[in-house]
Specification:
InterPro entries: AAA+_ATPase, ABC_AA/LPS_Transport, ABC_transporter-like_ATP-bd, BCA_ABC_TP_C, P-loop_NTPase
Structural class: alpha/beta
Distance between the termini: 30 Å
CATH superfamily of one domain: P-loop containing nucleotide triphosphate hydrolases
CATH class of one domain: Alpha Beta
Strand content: 15-25%
Helix content: 25-40%
Protein name: ABC transporter ATP-binding protein
Order of helices and strands: EEEHEEHEHHHHEHEHEEHH
Organism: Bradyrhizobium jicamae
Strand order of the largest sheet: 6-7-8-3-9-10
Keywords: ATP-binding, Nucleotide-binding, Transport
Pfam families: ABC_tran, BCA_ABC_TP_C
């Protein structure tokens, strides 16, 4: 099975603090791949490296065989990489519909020159096609009743869904979900899990997800990787990862001496990975 994403020996340092140390893994085409780990384990750091917010101190990142390590973050959506954020990044003063339309921006072919020939160049048809795609996403995520609402006025669970909708609007082949169920109640989590599975199975998107809810991760993931103090300590199918003694130690808070490098200064535990 071909890798959509390949991470090779990625390390990330902030001064003397190591956020990631020689992390390597691959995400297969059409896979739902999850990353778990205690707070401060480096989960969001690896997503930020993939999306371009951070540049790795060492190592390489490949997307569909292309080296994207030094690529501008704004160029990555054009390749087919979309993401959501652990902390909501919506335009709170804009409507739900307009927030989702922002996700289509990089797909617009209309520019200054074609804008002056709007009707002749087919830009109007282009806009209608973008609107049609957005309406499909609104229907898929059951956002019809709030499509005209101001995003900032919505309950938290709905805002998380709107952010997923905006990431979907990019039409990514790989979507990075950073704690999509954080702060949700049980019913909201069930709905979001169903949407993520459908994204993977019906829309054919490759999904890489960070999530703290172990029950959800083990239920819907094809494979799971575990980070602790910026190092990979386990990777495999959910059942084998759950049974791994290193994983149990990490979640029970016991130090695993086999993984400790005396020369390393690991990142301290934080409230966000």
């Amino acid at each position: 099975m071909a890798h959509t994403l390949e991470v090779r020996g990625v390390s990330l340092r902030f001064g003397g603090v190591r956020a990631l140390t020689e992390v390597s893994f691959g995400v297969n085409e059409g896979e739902l791949f999850s990353i778990i780990g205690p707070n401060g384990a480096g989960k969001t750091s690896i997503v930020n490296c993939i999306s371009g917010r951070y540049k790795p101190t060492e190592g390489k990142l490949f997307y569909r065989g292309k080296d994207i390590t030094g690529l501008n973050p704004n160029a990555r959506p054009r390749l087919g990489i979309g993401r959501t954020f652990q902390n909501l990044a919506l335009f709170h003063h804009m409507s739900v519909l307009d927030n989702i339309m922002v996700g289509r921006h990089h797909l617009l072919k209309n520019n200054f020159i074609t804008g002056s020939l709007y009707w002749l160049t087919g830009a109007r048809r282009e806009e209608l096609e973008h609107r049609r795609k957005v309406e499909e996403i609104i229907d898929f995520l059951d956002l019809q009743s709030v499509r005209k609402a101001t995003a900032g006025t919505l309950p938290y669970g709905l805002r998380k869904r709107v952010e997923l909708a905006r990431a979907m609007a990019l039409e990514p082949q790989l979507i990075l979900l950073d704690e999509p169920m954080a702060g949700m109640n049980f019913e909201e989590k069930e709905d979001m899990a169903r949407y993520i599975v459908d994204l993977n199975e019906e829309f054919g998107m490759t999904v890489m997800m960070i999530e703290h809810d172990m029950g959800v991760v083990m239920d819907i993931s094809h494979r799971v990787m575990v980070l602790d103090f910026g190092r990979k300590i386990a990777e495999g199918d959910p059942a084998s990862v759950l049974a791994d003694p290193h994983v149990k130690r990490a979640y029970l808070g016991e130090e695993d001496e086999a993984l400790v490098d005396p020369d390393d200064k690991p990142a301290p535990r934080e409230s966000a990975a």
